[in-house]
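Hi V.,

Quick status before I head out on leave. The structure for the redesign project is tokenized and pasted below; the design run finished overnight.
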């Protein structure tokens, strides 16, 4: 572990920009929890079906799985400030509709699920853009603390949202919950507009929507660390969602009402907030993989305790422990994902991460809701906990640590694109680039290993295809080729060059013989009849 002094847990809040955005994020998450709590409790009065109650959470999280990548692509190619603000207007509009229908006593179970899905669209839109903004406004050494503060905001909202929603449900009615949601969303909207973001400077035209999605997905799939993180977050939420999705029924099993449900959610949030404050210090001695392993097992044990507890006095501390394990695991996985992504594709990468997270959550809510319907609520939660622990055992070799984090700070390529004899149109293409290497044949195996890393790096940057050919007549002569979609995408790929790419390029050049660098040639595709 690093011996450097840990960054203060609250250090990022000293920056006025992060502080303002953090308050907006807190308000946004409070509205999310208030809506989910009100919807989940309201559903128990509209139907006795355990499946329908569990589907409230599925309806809330499914939009993130369906719309995560398009949302991330938009967040990477449009003004992030305006996009973030629009998400809050969407949530406010849905809250107003829910409020009016609740006042008119016109809500049905299917209608409530549909509007919960619509509210989830707002969350699907705002999460990737906020995840991309945070590394822009805080120094890299403070990023772990900033992500922990984001977790605190989410879990403070897990306390504040349910408490406020429970009080309003008990004393006024669901329509007041939805009305307050609309008001808080407008507050978040105003805070976001106060942020004066800086547009990313580029002489190139903006990326196209479909192409941006392709590049984002391709980047994530070619990143070994991101692939492991996606599997880990999906499996963890597949297990852990059983507790939160069925919590209204756990509260009813304890002979409690809305107050008991609120207390259990608040206990889980309080445990998460208390732990998040100490995460930067704990990371000095505990690695990300250890956090994930122990967090998963601890959450499983706490879930079993809460499910089988005969008393609320035992369930509350179990929920606190579950919250502590949840934040430790989720924060470690989020940090690993952030550190594996360069800024130019961060929103898209985090949207795929969010899709895996919410996909696991939606699948878990639906799956364990069905199990609860066929058996019982305690049986379903116990099965989820045992299954999650067994899956962790079988995937124990999958590491999110991966050694030293790569440096994704922008860097200039070694050479600029030479002035073409005839200026290409930006949409001309595809563009084929060839690079000629001459190496010592006895070092071919090591060269192949570096070129496999090169293949993944080129594909992460957005190339359509890549290949390596060996000259049959000249030992040690190799030709690398790759295709860019168009001339403008070729130029855009050069803008994406990072310090990590510089290191990989230097390793490739270490194999090349001769004083002159490898010969690079570019060819434009021609349309033939």
């Amino acid at each position: 572990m690093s011996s450097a002094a840990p960054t203060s847990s609250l250090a990022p809040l000293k920056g006025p920009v992060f502080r303002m955005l953090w308050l907006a994020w807190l308000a946004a998450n409070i509205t999310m929890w208030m809506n989910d709590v009100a919807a989940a409790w309201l559903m128990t009065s509209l139907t006795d079906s355990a499946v329908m109650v569990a589907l409230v959470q599925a309806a809330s999280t499914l939009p993130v799985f369906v719309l995560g990548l398009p949302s991330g692509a938009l967040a990477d190619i449009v003004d992030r400030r305006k996009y973030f603000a629009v998400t809050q207007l969407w949530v406010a509009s849905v809250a107003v509709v829910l409020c009016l229908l609740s006042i008119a006593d016109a809500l049905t179970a299917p209608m409530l699920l549909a509007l919960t899905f619509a509210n989830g669209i707002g969350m699907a839109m705002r999460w990737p853009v906020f995840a991309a903004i945070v590394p822009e406004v805080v120094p890299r050494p403070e990023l772990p603390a900033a992500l922990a503060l984001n977790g605190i905001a989410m879990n403070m909202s897990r306390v504040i949202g349910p408490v406020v929603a429970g009080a309003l449900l008990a004393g006024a009615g669901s329509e007041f919950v939805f009305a307050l949601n609309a008001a808080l969303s407008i507050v978040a909207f105003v805070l976001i507009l106060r942020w004066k973001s800086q547009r990313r400077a580029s002489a190139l035209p903006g990326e196209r929507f479909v192409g941006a999605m392709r590049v984002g997905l391709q980047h994530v799939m070619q990143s070994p660390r991101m692939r492991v993180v996606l599997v880990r977050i999906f499996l963890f939420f597949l297990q852990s969602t059983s507790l939160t999705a069925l919590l209204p029924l756990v509260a009813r099993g304890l002979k409690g009402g809305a107050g008991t449900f609120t207390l259990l959610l608040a206990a889980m949030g309080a445990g998460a907030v208390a732990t998040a404050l100490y995460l930067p210090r704990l990371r000095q001695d505990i690695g990300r993989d250890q956090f994930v392993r122990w967090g998963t097992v601890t959450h499983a044990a706490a879930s079993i305790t809460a499910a089988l507890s005969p008393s609320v006095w035992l369930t509350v501390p179990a929920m606190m422990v579950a919250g502590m394990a949840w934040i430790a695991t989720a924060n470690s996985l989020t940090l690993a994902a952030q550190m594996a992504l360069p800024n130019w594709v961060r929103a898209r990468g985090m949207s795929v991460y969010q899709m895996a997270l919410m996909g696991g959550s939606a699948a878990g809510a639906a799956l364990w809701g069905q199990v609860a319907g066929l058996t019982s609520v305690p049986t379903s939660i116990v099965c989820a906990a045992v299954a999650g622990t067994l899956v962790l055992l079988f995937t124990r070799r999958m590491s999110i640590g991966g050694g030293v984090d790569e440096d994704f700070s922008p860097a200039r390529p070694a050479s600029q694109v030479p002035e073409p004899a005839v200026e290409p149109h930006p949409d001309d293409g595809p563009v084929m680039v060839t690079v000629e290497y001459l190496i010592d044949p006895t070092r071919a195996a090591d060269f192949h290993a570096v070129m496999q890393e090169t293949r993944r790096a080129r594909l992460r940057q957005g190339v359509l295809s890549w290949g390596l050919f060996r000259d049959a007549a000249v030992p040690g002569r190799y030709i690398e080729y790759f295709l860019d979609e168009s001339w403008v995408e070729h130029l855009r790929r050069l803008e994406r060059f990072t310090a990590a790419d510089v290191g990989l390029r230097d390793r490739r050049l270490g194999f090349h013989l001769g004083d002159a660098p490898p010969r690079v040639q570019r060819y434009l595709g021609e349309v033939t009849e």
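Above is the designed sequence. Residues 431-524 form a domain with the Alpha-Beta Plaits fold (CATH 3.30.70.100).

G. will cover questions while I'm gone.

Best,
W.
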